[in-house]
Amino acid sequence: MLRTICLSLSLALAAPAAMAGPAASAGGNVTVTYVAPESFRDREFRRERSRTSALAEFDRWFAELGARSLPAGQSLAIEVLDIDLAGEFEPWRSGFNDVRFLRDTTPPRIHLRYRLMQGDTVIRAGEERLTDMNYLSDPRGHGDSRRFVYDKLMVQDWFRKTFATPRQPARPDLSG
């Protein structure tokens, strides 16, 4: 019985990854490099274990956004120079040492450089300082239990604005 439950659980956990595999590889490729992440502004990056976990989360998010936003054949290289996650820890609150409190004065911030390539040709390159001062007003984050939801939404918005290919409006058929 226990073996059946474990096997069912492992199959259930593997199924979403298997389904995401082909879809994730359909778009462009994203490579992320974190420049001195141990010195990032946010406390989350000071301890190796929490830093590794947080960076893995951002790696997955950047890869997913690349698969959704970039056409096949394009590659995006991102150098993350600093991250200050939404909210702050307030260790003076007893019993809440590891709780991140979200306030208007603690918006998500990410400093990065990027280079979008099509083969050997640079299509677009730049350096950005992303900040969302109104992150608490974003209804997409309300009730969302994903880790770093407001930071991810900010990166998603930047991806959409920076790399989305404009869609051509459908032309009316004037032939008849």
What does it look like?
The chain is of the alpha+beta class. The protein is built from three helices and six strands. The chain has a four-stranded mixed β-sheet with strand order 1-2-5-6, with helices on one face. It has a two-stranded antiparallel ribbon with strand order 3-4. Residues 1-25 have low confidence and may be disordered.
Query: Distance N terminus to C terminus?
Result: 68 Å
How would the global form be characterised?
Answer: globular
Number of helices: 3
How many DSSP E strands? Answer: 6
Overall mean confidence score, pLDDT: 81
Strand order of the largest sheet: 1-2-5-6
CA-atom Rg in angstroms: 20 Å
Q: Tell me the strand percentage band.
A: 15-25%
Helix and strand run: HEHEEEEEH
The profile of the biggest β sheet is: 4 strands, mixed
Uncertain regions spanning at least 5 consecutive residues: 1-25
Instruction: Determine the structural class based on helices, strands and strand pairing.
Output: alpha+beta
The share of residues in helices is: 25-40%
Task: Give the helix/strand layout.
Blueprint: H1 2-24, E1 29-34, H2 48-69, E2 74-84, E3 88-89, E4 100-101, E5 109-118, E6 121-131, H3 149-163
Parallel strand pairs: 1-2
Antiparallel strand pairs: 2-5, 3-4, 5-6
